[in-house]
């Protein structure tokens, strides 16, 4: 009895010691596992070989792969508008926006100073501290954000696509690329400032077809005429242009004018499963 009473605590102590060792082992296994997970998690983000994402790939699929969105819903995508000047680009890269939207024009557009150098500026601004070449280098070097380029003049398109092509022969762009222009006259615009559709599309087919096209109408919203919106003719004209294109196509629209023209847009979207 006495000996067993003496033994019990000692067995207890041994048990506790064993459990203690086990706990320590479990904790160190956890630490090891955590280290493994961390180690495994880091490389794919920058250096580990991973199949590059083609520039004509689906933006939602790309963002889903990155873990930026948890389902393929376009409303979850966040955009940084007008990431043009160096300071704006820097701010956009620091932001958590998933896609950079930037405007490309030609330096000194339509003045005697005009060059063939693509720059990042929204009209009426025609000069910039950021050339398209510099913009692209910085974006590709420092982020995995998607790219949407909005061309403000047909003159900027050829030189920009040449830069893209050269760059993509050196490094993988490895993200979705949208090429955007307003190619048709839309509601309320008095003069035609649209980018020439056939020239825009043929330059893209010739120089950089691996993209998603974003094709819109020039628009002006007049609050005195709240029910002036896209007409069936405008929408049909777009369809006659995009119907045979090989790329994915998206349509940027002026949100305030969409509801009244919804039957036309609904028809347009139903014409294709792309
Ligand atoms: C052309 O550039 C010069 C100097 O860069 C500037 O002074 C001049 O105003 C510009 N001309 C036009 C038409 O923009
Ligand atoms: C991009 O990164 C490369 C290698 O890290 C570096 O040599 C190059 O200068 C960087 N370019 C820019 C524009 O930051
Ligand atoms: C677009 O450019 C082509 C070739 O220069 C020209 O024939 C056509 O008329 C232009 N289209 C419009 C709508 O200006
Ligand atoms: C375009 O995409 C195809 C595959 O879809 C790829 O083989 C080709 O290298 C890409 N070209 C460029 C310039 O990215
Ligand atoms: C458009 O708006 C005007 C003025 O608000 C109104 O009188 C007219 O009935 C509207 N037309 C349509 C087709 O809704």
By CATH reckoning, the class would read Alpha Beta
**Helical proportion, percent range:** 40-55%
CA-atom Rg in angstroms: 28 Å
**Low-confidence region ranges:** 1-45
Strand residues, percent: 5-15%
Q: Count every beta strand, where a strand is a DSSP E run of 2 or more residues.
A: 7
pLDDT averaged residue by residue: 85
CATH topology: TIM Barrel
What pattern of helices and strands is seen along the backbone?
HHHEHEEHEHEHEHEH
CATH architecture group name: Alpha-Beta Barrel
Q: What's the overall geometry? A: globular
The DSSP helix count reads 9
**SS class:** alpha/beta
| Biggest sheet character | 7 strands, mixed
How many angstroms separate the termini? 84 Å
Oligomer: single chain
Number of domains: 1
What binds here, in terms of ligands, is: 2-acetamido-2-deoxy-beta-D-glucopyranose
Summarize the topology.
Layout: H1 2-41, H2 43-46, H3 59-66, E1 79-80, H4 86-94, E2 99-106, E3 118-120, H5 132-142, E4 146-151, H6 154-170, E5 177-185, H7 197-207, E6 212-218, H8 232-242, E7 249-250, H9 262-270
Parallel strand pairs: 1-2, 2-4, 4-5, 5-6, 6-7
Antiparallel strand pairs: 2-3
Bound molecules: 2-acetamido-2-deoxy-beta-D-glucopyranose (NAG) (5 copies).
Family: Belongs to the menorin family.
GO cellular component, one term: extracellular space
Membrane topology: Single-pass membrane protein
């Amino acid at each position: 009895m006495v000996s067993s009473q003496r033994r019990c605590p000692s067995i207890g102590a041994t048990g506790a010691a064993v459990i203690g060792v086990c706990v320590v082992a479990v904790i160190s296994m956890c630490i090891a596992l955590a280290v493994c997970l961390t180690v495994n998690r880091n490389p794919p983000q920058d250096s580990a070989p991973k199949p590059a994402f083609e520039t004509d790939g689906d933006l939602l699929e790309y963002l889903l792969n990155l873990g930026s969105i948890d389902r393929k819903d376009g409303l979850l995508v966040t955009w940084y508008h007008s990431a043009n000047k160096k300071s704006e680009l820097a701010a956009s890269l620091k932001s958590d926006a998933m896609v950079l939207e930037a405007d490309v024009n030609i330096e000194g557009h339509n003045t005697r100073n005009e060059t063939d150098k693509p720059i990042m500026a929204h009209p009426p601004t025609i000069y910039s501290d950021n050339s398209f070449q510099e913009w692209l280098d910085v974006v590709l070097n420092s982020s995995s954000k998607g790219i949407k380029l909005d061309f403000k003049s047909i003159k900027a398109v050829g030189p920009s696509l040449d830069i893209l092509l050269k760059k993509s022969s050196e490094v993988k762009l490895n993200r979705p690329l949208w090429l955007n222009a307003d190619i048709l006259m839309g509601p309320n615009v008095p003069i035609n400032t649209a980018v020439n559709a056939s020239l825009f599309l043929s330059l893209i087919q010739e120089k950089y077809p691996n993209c998603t096209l974003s094709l819109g109408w020039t628009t002006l919203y007049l609050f005195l005429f709240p029910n002036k919106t896209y007409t069936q003719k405008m929408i049909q004209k777009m369809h006659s242009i995009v119907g045979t294109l090989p790329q994915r196509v998206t349509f940027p629209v002026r949100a305030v004018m969409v509801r009244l023209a919804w039957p036309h847009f609904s028809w347009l979207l139903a014409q294709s499963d792309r």
